[in-house]
Amino acid sequence: MLELQYELESKAAKWYATIDIANAFFSIPLAAECRAQFTFTWKGVQYTWNRLPQGWKHSPTICHGLIQIALEKGEAPEYLQYIDDIIVWGNTAGEVFEKGEKIIQILLKAGFAIKRSKVKGPAQEIQFLGVKWQDGGRQIPTEVIN
User: Fold this and answer.
1) How far is 142 from 146, CA to CA, in rounded Å?
2) φ/ψ bin of 80: left (φ > 0), alpha (ψ from -120 to 50), beta (otherwise)
3) Contacts of 70 by beta carbon, 8 Å cutoff, 6+ apart
4) What is the pLDDT of residue 138?
5) DSSP letters along 55-89, please?
6) pLDDT of residue 133
7) Regarding beta strands 85-90 and 39-42, do their DSSP bridges make them parallel or antiparallel, or are they unpaired?
8) Which end of the chain, N or C, is less packed with Cβ atoms under 10 Å?
9) Record: fold of 2-145
């Protein structure tokens, strides 16, 4: 994650926007032939996951990879991604808005859901992965320090 921070810092951006994919793991179906591996019993009843489960050690890697493939295939503008969290940046609010909208449209077309209330920006100050970004620099939010 530190590499992402260094990469974003190198952009010296003035404006940012973040996009969070709604229920990203659960939006990824498991192949029918794999579902038997995701069967469990609870209180005497057998259940089978048919979507990528949270808590499975490979879920974050699979989720990240599928989102990345969708964005690359859709020719997304420059972005940084950590699993289902995405940040875009630029020198103007308009530029950042356009980049964010393009990424959202690519993700929607790929079958992912976006909760618009969780899309933040364009803003000159934004929080991404617990770090506050402003004027191309990062800092730990005060509420985290206290």
Assistant:
1) 6
2) beta
3) 106, 107, 109, 110, 112
4) 81
5) T-TTHHHHHHHHHHHHHHHTTPPS-EEETTEEEEE
6) 86
7) unpaired
8) C
9) Alpha-Beta Plaits (3.30.70)
The Cα-based distances of 17 to 29, 98, 133 in angstroms read 28, 10, 10
Which residues, given as ranges, of the chain have pLDDT below 50?
none
Distance CA 87, CA 129 (A): 10
Note whether 139 and 97 are within 8 A (CB): no
Q: At what angle do helices 59-73 and 93-109 cross, to 10 degrees?
A: 110
Can you read off the two tokens belonging to residue 40? 């469990």
Contact present, 88 and 77 (Cβ < 8 Å): yes
Beta bridge partners of 120: 18
Retrieve residue 62's tokens. Answer: 């699979």
Which pTM does this prediction carry? 0.86
Task: Say if residues 5 and 138 touch (Cβ distance below 8 Å).
Answer: yes
Contact assessment for residue 45 and residue 59, using Cβ atoms and an 8 Å cutoff: no
Closest to 15 (Cα-Cα) out of 144, 141, 129, 120 = 120
Read off φ and ψ for residue 96, nearest 5 degrees.
-65, -40
